Amino acid sequence: MISAWRTIEAAYKKARQWSGEIENGNSLSPSRITNFKICGLAWYFRYISKIKTPPAGRMAFGFSGHAALTTDLTVKKDTGDVVKDSLLAELFDSTLDENFKHVDKKFEHEPLGKMKDEFREKGHRLLALYRRIGEPAIKPKEVEKRIEYPIEVAGLDNKPQIVQIVNHIDTVARGDKLIDFKFRGRANGHTDTPTLQMASYALAYKYETGREPKEVREDQYVALKREARLIPQRMDAIDPQARIALALDVQTVLRATQAGIFVTPARGRYPCTEKWCSYWNFCPYGGGGKKGMKLLPNGKRLALP
């Protein structure tokens, strides 16, 4: 197993670049489309008003696990070897420590120190599971593969318009397999098959290579109370219905942005609660009150449920 720090450092730097590129770019991405479907107004605050909010503890945990796995697989792709177990755990710990510096305790319901210790213990269990049954089965050809492709949809004037979709595929493995990773710290995490993201990855791969992927899946590493589980979610990403749904989602985001109408979810239920929404204190329909009205699109209106 490799312990050469320069090799690992280069892979780790690459693993951290993808989120910044999506966050600061002007193109759509599967994650941006998903965020719009969760709450259009939060999407407006984040991507149009550019209001920055601290990450939740669970997000810091997920990113730390993702960075560790993609670093290890990048090293494996480049050298044929993998990062030492102790160093992989150290990499996860240092990333978790760094990410938790930005977590706001006002948004959490338990002390940050206690939460971080719990996530550290869960992360080590998930890394051991990854090393035992996840990593040996993956032969990576590309890691954090960036592919941008166009989708043509109709704007408000019904004229065709090209929208660029930016994808960062976690791993392209031998045999035309596309694999995405998720680290989850609780058993009640979202485990539905991520149709939109996987359909976009499949389209991106075909755009890049001219071939349909043989397999598209999301490997969910979930830390239960007394065990760790790997839950692979597979889907038929070449299903025409999935691709039609993706195009309709892109068109919805485009038209909503052009019209200045950003639909909010039903208040009082996930995600429109103080516990789940990082924009609660800005939102006039949350805790922002009259001051929050100033943040709404000027001269525009909102469509409420």
Kindly describe this structure.
The protein is an alpha+beta fold and 305 residues long. The protein has a domain at 5-26 and 52-139. The chain has helices at residues 5-24, 30-38, 40-48, 57-79, 85-100, 112-134, 195-209, 240-259, 289-293, and strands at 140-154, 160-173, 177-184, 215-223, 228-235. Helix 1 (5-24) packs across helix 4, helix 5 (85-100) runs antiparallel to helix 6 and helix 7 (195-209) packs across helix 8 (240-259). 34% of the residues are buried. Mean pLDDT is 84; it is low at 18-25 and 189-193.
Short account of what is shown:
The protein contains 9 helices and 5 strands. The chain has 305 residues and is of the alpha+beta class. The N and C termini lie far apart (54 Å).
Alpha-carbon distance between the termini? 54 Å
Instruction: Calculate the mean pLDDT score and round it.
Output: 84
Mind telling me the C-alpha Rg?
20 Å
Strand line-up across the major sheet: 1-2-3-4-5
Indicate the percent of residues in helices: 40-55%
Task: Give the ordered list of helices and strands.
Answer: HHHHHHEEEHEEHH
Structural class: alpha+beta
Shape: globular
Strand portion: 15-25%
Low-confidence region ranges: 18-25, 189-193
Give the oligomeric state of the chains in this entry, treating copies of one chain as homo and distinct chains as hetero.
Answer: single chain
Question: Counting H and I runs of at least 4 residues, what is the number of helices?
Answer: 9
Total count of strands:
5
Summarize the biggest pleated sheet: 5 strands, mixed
